[in-house]
Automatic annotation (TrEMBL), chains A, B:
It comes from the Bacteria. The gene is truA. SUPFAM superfamilies: Pseudouridine synthase. It is an enzyme of class 5 (isomerase). This is tRNA pseudouridine synthase A. HAMAP family: TruA.
Length: 245, 245
């Protein structure tokens, strides 16, 4: 069977997240599987690189699926898009080797996170950023963010209740820009625990508000205790930008 | 009576445009008037600086209204926002002198226009940009745009059927940037004819596709004939950024 790799963009606003669930049929995975099945006329299961949560957006999500269809690789995207709603699109489709696995083979992931920081919430960015009305100390956030770079045990920055055992991850870089009321983070690492990006950003916001000291990140990491980190930043500010192989 | 000036942001996606109309109650003007009336408990008419079309967005629309209410000027925005849907927000409210008129007193307006140029339409930017799948020659668009700068008779760049007599306008500047599949224009001038920004952008797109010569703008202007200019770019790419007084 052929193995097809898809690069996918989606507006996560109206979905219950990426992954198929028992109690809803409103997931991005299902929308794409249903569209592919109409194209290839076979039952299909796609494997996504990252299971984005309800409201989280995808700019460069990756998924792969097996098929007997003989459609040329680059034609899949147009054929599948014909059956997708306008808030999901396949932006690239290529054939990959038999054993390629979107999730297990990922060497790194890049996320973007947008905060809208102004006295009034933005109508245009309302579903595409996390609204923070409070004045933030950007300098202390910018200083604190660098503590995350490198190989650390991120247990304190994982949603409580996760069952993952190996909580060591390597953050290659994290950037912060602040322009026209929008604070933008880019975070690139070898992998991320459940809610890790959102807890990192939430902690940096709490530092910007003065609720957490800007030099306390090393101690929070060391504690491995979720309770010491900051709040979980909202889903609508998060974008899965790219998956690297 | 007091005269209150509002600066307004809105996502125009779900509205029939700014201006109140006989055959629809789905306008931005009405939403804001209804919200203000709930706050001040008087009948109110607001005067908007620009009558944006269906689907066009506002980042810095300005409107004013008269009221006997004694609410402190800066409190109006919070009070009115409480009654507005989440796709419209008052971002500033100040008291101005008696005869200030949002439209007649405007000395300049700044618009932004976004084109999304890629092989597949973007789900995230679908309502916030004009999707162009064709390859565009950005260099010739960039060269051609400068012909619009200065004082010209823009009759050829006005929607046919407009009854305006004085079609001379002054464009102070126009910029083009091209980054991550998004082509962004900023256009600042003393005033704009009906659909003028969208016809200017549509003409530049037609130049980018090679359908119109990049040095033909002076002749199109001279002709004063709408038929010689390019197509009207879509509403969803247009943003009223700022009104200057």
């Amino acid at each position: 069977m052929r193995n097809i790799k898809l690069t996918i963009e989606y507006d996560g606003t109206n979905y219950s997240g990426w992954q198929k669930q028992a109690n809803t049929n409103n997931t991005i995975q299902e929308e794409i599987e249903n569209a592919i099945e109409k194209v290839v006329d076979e039952k299909v299961t796609i494997i996504g690189a990252g299971r984005t949560d309800k409201g989280v957006h995808g700019r460069g999500q990756v998924a792969n699926f097996n098929t007997n269809s003989r459609i040329p690789e680059e034609k899949f995207k147009y054929a599948i898009n014909r059956y997708l709603p306008e808030d999901i699109a396949i932006v690239e489709s290529i054939e990959v080797e038999e054993f390629f696995h979107s999730r297990y083979d990922a060497l790194g992931k890049k996320y973007k996170y947008l905060i809208y920081n102004a006295p009034v919430k933005s109508p245009i960015f309302r579903n595409y950023s996390y609204y923070i009305p409070y004045k933030l100390n950007i300098q202390s956030m910018d200083k604190a963010k660098d503590y995350f770079i490198g190989k650390h045990d991120f247990a304190a920055f994982m949603a409580s209740g996760s069952s993952i055992k190996d909580t060591i991850r390597n953050i290659y870089y994290i950037s912060l820009t602040n322009c026209n009321n929008i604070i933008e983070f880019e975070i690139y690492g070898d992998g991320f625990l459940y809610n890790m990006v959102r807890i990192i950003v939430g902690t940096l916001i709490d530092i910007g508000r003065g609720k957490i000291e800007s030099d306390s990140i090393p101690n929070i990491l060391k504690s491995k205790d979720r309770k010491n980190a900051g709040h979980t930043a909202a889903a609508e500010g998060l974008y899965l930008e790219k998956v690297c192989y």
